[in-house]
Design a protein that fits this description.
The protein is of the alpha/beta class and 273 residues long. The protein folds into 2 domains: 154 residues, Periplasmic binding protein-like II (D-Maltodextrin-Binding Protein, domain 2, 3-Layer(aba) Sandwich), CATH 3.40.190; 91 residues, Periplasmic binding protein-like II (D-Maltodextrin-Binding Protein, domain 2), CATH 3.40.190. The chain is 40% helix and 20% strand. The chain has 9 helices and 15 strands. The protein has a 5-stranded mixed β-sheet, with helices on both faces. A hairpin with a 5-residue loop joins strand 3 and strand 4. The longest helix is centred in the first third of the chain and has 29 residues.
Length: 273
């Protein structure tokens, strides 16, 4: 094979990649709907209201993004532990579900610019007397299935030189974890601090506290996730978030759902490793 053939092959590969990237966005417009994956068990990002409608911060963002594309928003409630596989099997176009950007996930997807803080926190009962991470020594700890907090708990325990009681417990949704806390089956539950503050607000016997293991996990961010080949769609979402931030609409949504704004602290570039 000569250099001319190699260059021609590379040119065709680049063209095919560009067309594939553009195709995802065009397919959405042709279908007239934007499907985004989430698990409707994660207040206040997404949850079901008294009429069984999915509402929350991500839903408002998804609706606004879909409107900017001239299509209808369709949230798809899915199992979070297999959400990446569901994205690649075509069940939805993107993940917009309070996902924390991590290196492990980045091996499979590309992330948008962050649209929310994802710092970790611990939820405990007020009666437990636990006031920091070290208070979990010798006790049962848990985290959401498929979340980065699972590895964070293990790593932080090693850093602190403590051991939990038995294996880490995982939960398919926050409601099950809150029940386990209330019945004493777990002593601490790790998730994002913003979601845990919401849980504590609704459960007066529970208390949420920030947790970063002496800074080990500072700078965690919530971002949308896309298939590696869907860069045109990702770029459209990045531009949408930048516009929302500039107009003040993103701040308004954060105040609506979280009681405060996090816009000023958000990075303006997408997480990557």
């Amino acid at each position: 094979m000569n250099w001319h053939s190699l260059l021609l092959g590379a040119a065709f590969a680049t063209l095919a990649s560009t067309l594939a990237q553009a195709e995802a966005l065009e397919d959405i417009k042709a279908a007239g709907e934007l499907k985004f994956g989430l698990e409707a068990q994660y207040r206040p990002f997404e949850f079901r209201d008294e009429n069984n409608n999915i509402v929350g911060y991500d839903i408002d963002l998804g609706n606004a993004f879909a409107a900017s594309l001239g299509v209808k928003a369709v949230p798809v409630d899915t199992n979070w532990s297999t959400v990446l596989e569901s994205l690649y099997s075509g069940q939805f176009n993107m993940i917009l579900g309070g996902m924390t950007a991590t290196q492990v996930r980045y091996e499979k997807v590309n992330f948008s610019v962050p649209y929310m803080d994802a710092a970790s926190g611990l939820l405990v009962t007020k009666a437990s007397g636990i006031t920091d991470f070290a208070g979990l020594a010798g006790k049962v700890a848990g985290a959401g299935a498929g979340t980065p907090q699972i590895d964070m708990l293990k790593t932080c325990a090693e850093t602190k030189g403590i051991a939990f009681d038995g294996d880490l417990q995982t939960f398919d949704n926050d409601a099950l974890a809150y029940e386990a806390l209330a019945t004493g089956r777990v002593a601490g539950y790790a998730s994002s601090i913003v979601s845990l503050l919401e849980g504590a607000k609704a459960n007066p016997d529970l208390m949420a506290m920030p947790w970063n293991c002496d800074g080990t996990f500072e700078g965690a961010w919530t971002a949308a996730a896309f298939r590696k080949e869907d860069d045109t769609l990702r770029a459209a979402f990045d531009a949408f978030i930048a516009g929302m931030a500039a107009s003040g609409e993103l701040e308004a949504l954060q105040v609506k759902w979280f009681g405060q704004s996090f816009v000023a602290a958000l990075p303006t570039t997408a997480p990557s490793w």
